[in-house]
Amino acid sequence: MTLTEWLSLVIICVMGAMSPGPSLAVVLKHSLHGGMKNGMLAALSHGIGVGFYACASLLGLGALMTQLPTLYQVLVYGGAAYLAYLGIRILLAKPSSQTLNVEQTKPSPRSALQDGFAIAFLNPKLAVFFLALFSQFIDPENLTLQVGLIMCLTVFVLDTGWYLLVALLTDISKKRFGFTKTNPWLEKLLGVIFIALAVRVVITL
């Protein structure tokens, strides 16, 4: 892989990571409700999930997904169901009371890790995307371990780096504009957004 080819891969991966969707919503949710630490944990686990699909695509999972539409659909519907679950959980949550300890109402770091990874893992479109993307840069018959590692690490670092930046900027914005208290209307809006994203996933299947 030449430097020009690698830079082209970087640009495409950055554009893909920056596109708004369920992943951004999850990182924002944990950054707003759990703080920068939880947002960054969600970003890290999401990057691991995306990196998994990048590596798996090089091993043939992307091609397998196209040959097994049932498996592909099961994962897509699973992702939509998870998004709907997150939205419903937010909508049904009781408003935070001023008498409650704020730390007790924060999402746990474990839930941040779980949500970040699940949103990536339950998105088999990533496997197909990386299959199509990588085929533009490499010949599968001449793929070396070094090139494969470079491509997978590039995907992981760029995806994780972007969402770490999102978590950081969200935390800075909260402090800058005084969004330190839980806003019930903002929470409900976030819940509706998750459900709308779930519907969009099913419709665009």
TrEMBL record:
Its annotated compartments are:
Cell membrane
One matching Pfam family, short form? LysE
Q: Which InterPro entries match?
A: LeuE-type
Key words of the record: Cell membrane, Membrane, Transmembrane, Transmembrane helix
> Does the record bear Cell membrane in its keywords?
yes
> Where is it mainly found?
membrane
- How does the record classify its membrane topology? Multi-pass membrane protein
Transmembrane regions: 6-28, 40-65, 71-92, 113-137, 143-165, 185-203
Q: PANTHER family, per this entry?
A: AMINO ACID EFFLUX PERMEASE RHTB FAMILY (PTHR30086:SF16), ARGININE EXPORTER PROTEIN ARGO (PTHR30086)
Could you identify this protein by its name?
A: Amino acid transporter LysE
Species this protein is from: Pseudoalteromonas gelatinilytica
State the organism's lineage: Bacteria, Pseudomonadati, Pseudomonadota, Gammaproteobacteria, Alteromonadales
